[in-house]
Amino acid sequence: MKELIGIAEQVAAKLIARKQTIAVAESSGGGLISASLLAVPGASAYYLGGAVVYTRDARRVLMDISDEGMKGFRSSSEPYAKLLAEQMRSRFGSDWGLSETGAAGPTGNRDGDAAGHSCMAVAGPASGVMTLETGSNDRFANMQAFAAMALKLLLRKLEG
Predict the structure, then answer these.
(1) Reduced 3-state DSSP string for the chain
(2) CB 28, CB 146: distance < 8 Å
(3) Contact 132, 147 (CB under 8 A)
């Protein structure tokens, strides 16, 4: 967790200096991205909200993305991660949206992705998307790795 909070502190400093805000959607990270950002004192200056979008029901209720709206998308994919980040940014009116979606383990997901597979995206003044493959089936280690990589992707975009 210390690594996550260290990265979150760097993100927070950039967001606070710019007077910018963020909203987060995460799946297999289980809330670690939001918890890390909220662990930094002064989080209310930049953190607008987040959602753990772990199931189809959560996607429908929290993100307002219907099954019809998922046509052409696979849940643990870069296009879906991008959609989540954009949806969070739009729904919260934040400067930045950050998302993560994947398979923490110990087994893969129903789409055939192995444990340790995650896609993350940033939407905002700069955008980006990436895929991480840890090669591990250690659920908690993967959750931490997914959250750290999502925060690092955001930090890179904030650093321009």
Answers:
(1) CHHHHHHHHHHHHHHHHHCCCEEEEECCCCCHHHHHHHCCCCHHHCEEEEEECCCHHHHHHHHCCCCHHHCCCCCCCHHHHHHHHHHHHHHHCCCEEEEEEEECCCCCCCCCCCCCEEEEEEECCCCEEEEEECCCCCHHHHHHHHHHHHHHHHHHHHHC
(2) yes
(3) no
Q: Residues with Cβ < 8 Å from 54, sequence gap 6 or more? A: 27, 28, 30
- In terms of residues, how long is the chain? 160
Cβ atoms within 10 Å of 140's Cβ, excluding its own: 11
Q: Cα–Cα distance between 155 and 111 in angstroms, integer? A: 29
d(CA 89, CA 24): 8
What pLDDT is recorded for position 26? 98
Q: What is the pLDDT of residues 42-54, one digit of tens each?
A: 999 999 999 999 9
